[in-house]
Structure formats: C-alpha cells, structure tokens
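G., the chain you wanted modeled:
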Amino acid sequence: MVKAMVKTMIVDGCQFSLGQLKEWCRLTGKAEVVGAYTAPRRALEQLHREEVELALVDMDGPGVAGLEWELRQIKPRMVVMCLSREEGRCIQAMRARADDFLFKPYGKAEVEQLIDKALLLRGRLNMRILRVQTFGQFEVWAGQDRVHLSNAKSRELLALCVDRRGEAVSMEEAIDMLWPGEPLDERVKKRYRRAILDIRKALSHYGAAQALQTQRKVCRVAPEMLQCDYFDFLNGKSGPFPGKPWDYMKEYSWAEATAGKLYGLCASRKRIASERGGSRAYDG
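Predicted structure as tokens:
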C-alpha cells in the first residue's frame, strides 16, 4: 500500500537548517519536499508553479515578515506551519492564519508530529465551501441546506469568528463577548466548549468540520473555506451590495464596531467614485 505523502515546501534563510529540515522530512517517509528555499521571494515565485500542500516557514530569517499571509494569497487552502525560537513571532503568525507553529530547538520527532497534523488538515483542499450571509440575519449554508446549530450561543460564536476573518479568537475574549459579566469560571468555560463542539458537529454533517479550527484555547474560521458577503465587500468584488452597513450582523451588539467601519468604507468608496466621475453610482 502506498503511504500518503504531503507535498512540502520549506523556507529557511539558513542553508544548514534548510538541509537538516529537508532531511528530517525525508526520514519521516510522510513528506515529499518539492521545493527548499533560503530566499522567501524565490519561494513565492515557485509556489505559482508547484503543487504544494504544506509550507514549513522559518520565521527567524530575513525577509519573512508577512510571508505566511502572502503564501495564503497564492494558495488559500495550503497548510502553513511556522518555526521560530520566539513565542511572539509564532503568535503573530497564528494571527496571520498560520495553521500551527513549532518552537526551536526541535528534532525529527517534532517535525513528524507537524507533518502528521498537515496530513489531517490537507483534507480541506477538497473540502466543501460554505456560503455565509452576514448582512441581515446571520446564516450559513452548505449548498442548498442551511447549517443548523442547536443553540444560539453556538451560532453567535461562529458569527464572531467570521467577523474576525480568520484571526484567532481566544476563549477569554469569546466568553466576554457571548456571556458579558459572567465570571471566567469552569461553568462558563464548559458552555464555551459545548458551543465549539456544537459548531464542529454541525459542520461535520456537511463535510466541512475543518472550517472551524481550534487550538490552545483559541478558535477561528478558515476564510478560504467560506464564500462570504462580508469578505467579498471588503475585497471590493463587483456585484450588488448585499445590504446596508448597519444591517451587518444586526442581531449582535458586538458587531456594531464592524458596521461602523463598513459605513466609513462605503462613504469612502462613494466619494472616490464621485471624484472619478464614474458613470455608475456606488450603491452603499
């Protein structure tokens, strides 16, 4: 039986570390290294040409700031794992939508664990895309089916993660938003965990469990798995605007801050269109 191999790209500014990491990947028997680069720009150029499922990125070298974000722009569903000796850089990478990180120093066993996780996550390459509506009533659809969540807090937690567009939401922040004024005790933590399980169960029913990612008391959505009116509007995609800014997730008070930003963006786009004298008025 042929073993599953994850097609892997490595980016490390140190030639010695690059060679060592490449060898450890080979020894696991689970990773096929299709590219190994000391120059981040070269890696980005080759990513357009190579079939890559996993990127291992050393965050301590020169020119890697924001690289995990640029990788995502080219291959949105690719698994991205970051390596660093500094906790702050790893946390920053997670906020920029890296899937996991590994602290230095590490060895073959730790690299193999990272690759094992990548093998699980790469299933999202063929995962079903969910359609998310944020203007008006918050809704999530899988094809023609509305995704049903068994309680209101599960639905609100998923909405909060969508609002953050892939940035990590800590358990403490989620509890503060969903259960304001409640003490951060085991009882409310249990409610949070129940909401997470409910979301994952609902998404699993449609083969989309990996659209919600959880790790180390944080959760977030994978934006590349979502077709979302909010994301489309921010990206300036053409087509009729799905609603007015003040309709954005109007059932949630914490969404008012985002609605205010959307209102300002509408006004700015309208002003720019007017200054350019466009023939078509901006509908905001």
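The two ends are 57 Å apart (CA to CA).

Shout if anything looks off.
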